[in-house]
Design a protein that fits this description.
By secondary structure, this protein is mainly beta. The protein contains three helices and twelve strands, in the order ββαββαβαβββββββ.
């Protein structure tokens, strides 16, 4: 089982696709869920999965302007499919100082300066969190603007697994840089 992050850059001359995968140590994740008190494993208090996801040799990509970003959870074999895993949603928070210092003076949705927000799978909460729900194919997708502001985004990937007749929720919390054209 692994997460797959795909970046599709929309440049005028050609299209560049970049795919990064992050393997999940499913055996250890299941063991820790059953044998430790790591957290409740509910949507409100998910279990942190960072220790069970391999980042070695991979890095969370920096996202250029005018790029389509997709995040999906892939089960590779029948043993993994037994856990009835699925991607619940992705959450994004802008943690950049420039964005947050300016936002104090501006009322409204600050995400409009970074992402195209036309999708019905996007919701901006009053606390400024951007929620991205999966589409019908189970993919969380969003598009950066051509003139996106330079930003630092903390995002969470919330997923669930069914383990011994109970559903547990897990979260992965990386930070990513969205580059401007400047």
């Amino acid at each position: 089982m692994h997460f797959e992050i795909t970046l599709k850059e929309n440049e005028s001359s050609n299209t560049n696709d970049s795919i990064v995968t992050f393997p999940i140590n499913l055996k250890e994740l299941v063991w820790a869920t059953q044998e430790t008190y790591s957290n409740l494993g509910t949507p409100y208090a998910p279990i942190r999965a960072d220790n069970f996801i391999s980042l070695t040799g991979n890095e969370f990509p920096s996202i250029p302007p005018d790029t389509h970003l997709e995040i999906k959870l892939i089960s590779e074999d029948e043993a993994e499919k037994h856990y009835a895993s699925n991607l619940v949603c992705c959450l994004a928070k802008n943690v950049g100082k420039k964005f947050n210092n300016e936002r104090i003076q501006v009322i409204g949705n600050g995400w409009k300066s970074i992402f195209k927000l036309e999708s019905e799978n996007l919701l901006c909460a009053p606390d400024g969190t951007l929620y991205i729900s999966p589409n019908t194919q189970g993919i969380c997708a969003i598009q950066t603007l051509n003139d996106a502001l330079d930003s630092y985004i903390s995002y969470s990937i919330l997923f669930r697994l069914s383990i011994k007749e109970r559903t547990y929720y897990f979260v992965l919390d990386p930070v990513v840089h969205i580059r401007s054209r400047d």
